[in-house]
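Async update (no meeting this week)

Hi team, since we skipped the sync, here's where things stand on the single-chain job. The sequence we agreed to prioritize is pasted below, unchanged from the tracker. I ran it this morning and attached the output directly underneath so nobody has to dig for it. Comments welcome in thread, and please keep replies under the output.
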Amino acid sequence: MDYFRFSGVCGNLMIAYLAVVIVSCGKKGAFCASCMIGILMETTLSQVQALYIICYPVLTMLWAQATADKTERQREKWAVLHPNRVREELPPFLRILFAAAGISGTMEVILLGYVYLNGVPITWVHIGRSAVQIGYTVLLSMAAAFPIRAALGMYRRSVRRVAGEMR
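Output:
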């Protein structure tokens, strides 16, 4: 991650990836990906016991509730409960940005709380660096959104076949 250092702060590429997976693969795919990332982060960067293995899946599922695609069943339920209101979802790209900002912001609040509980007074420098990290993670999610969604097959075009053409 040191290769993505900007202004002394590294963006969280794992959170950017999870934000794309939340919108592209839904809640179940995002949960599986966050569990794998949490386990990998726990085995490689563990300074606090079980912080990453708990935070990544929990925060992913929390923000997936707000930003993942709604199922047909949920859309029908909304239409029955609120017949006079039309509910339109935001475009996927905006939901990816909101998911990245939400997960990253919540993680930064947890980490700042942990720093404070260790006896370090929180200053505006800490808060500013956290804000830069959140913004940088959102920019990384914007940059990673199209290649990851293309690799997941979200942009496949249907091929038109001419009548009588052989496969």
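Quick observations from my side:
The helical segments are 13-45, 51-67, 72-81, 92-117, 124-151.
Residues 13-45 form the longest helix (33 residues).
Reply here if anything looks off.
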